[in-house]
Amino acid sequence: MPHIPLEEHLPGITGLLEYRQDTAAPIRVLTQILLRGDSTLTQGERELIATLVSHRNQCRFCTTAHTAAADLLLHEAETCEAVKQDFETAPVSAKMKALLAIAALVQQNGKNVTTEAVDRAKKEGATDMEIHDTVLIASLFCLYNKYVDGLASVTPTDPAFYTRLGERIVNHGYTRLPGGYDHLKK
């Protein structure tokens, strides 16, 4: 049960963002830029970063939502599961493994990111912008995970909910739907 009154038809972060649309607006813009904007990292790779951080933070809502989005963007489900289990042995590029290692360090504590971790990513071909964005995506998802869990927002258990949410994320990104979310009321 959420710690504050939220719209029942809007579980997870959506209800929190609707609760306070003025603070949600810059969060949505930043997320849209980082996860859907121009980048040399694919949208699927950026969703993998979000998934890994959320999984490590044990945020079930965000992990399941971003796993669904990553699976759709990658057109398969094995990579995301492998990344959550052990990104170092997952079927991703050496550059992506190095970036995921940085994301994992950020998730623990930003000060854990070392020169060696950054040098590894650069050696594997990561650009300064990719390293920057990896740190910022990881940091943003630490915020989201704490936001969702800190206010005890509703976490659905029905896998079909996350399939629909993943489709919404992939098809509409992170901006607020123009008509809001009343269509989701049951």
From TrEMBL:
This is Carboxymuconolactone decarboxylase family protein. Residues 34-70 form the Carboxymuconolactone decarboxylase-like domain. PANTHER family: CARBOXYMUCONOLACTONE DECARBOXYLASE-LIKE DOMAIN-CONTAINING PROTEIN, SI:CH211-175M2.5. It comes from Xanthocytophaga flava. InterPro entries: AhpD-like, AhpD_core, CMD-like. The lineage of its organism: Bacteria, Pseudomonadati, Bacteroidota, Cytophagia, Cytophagales. It holds the Pfam family CMD.
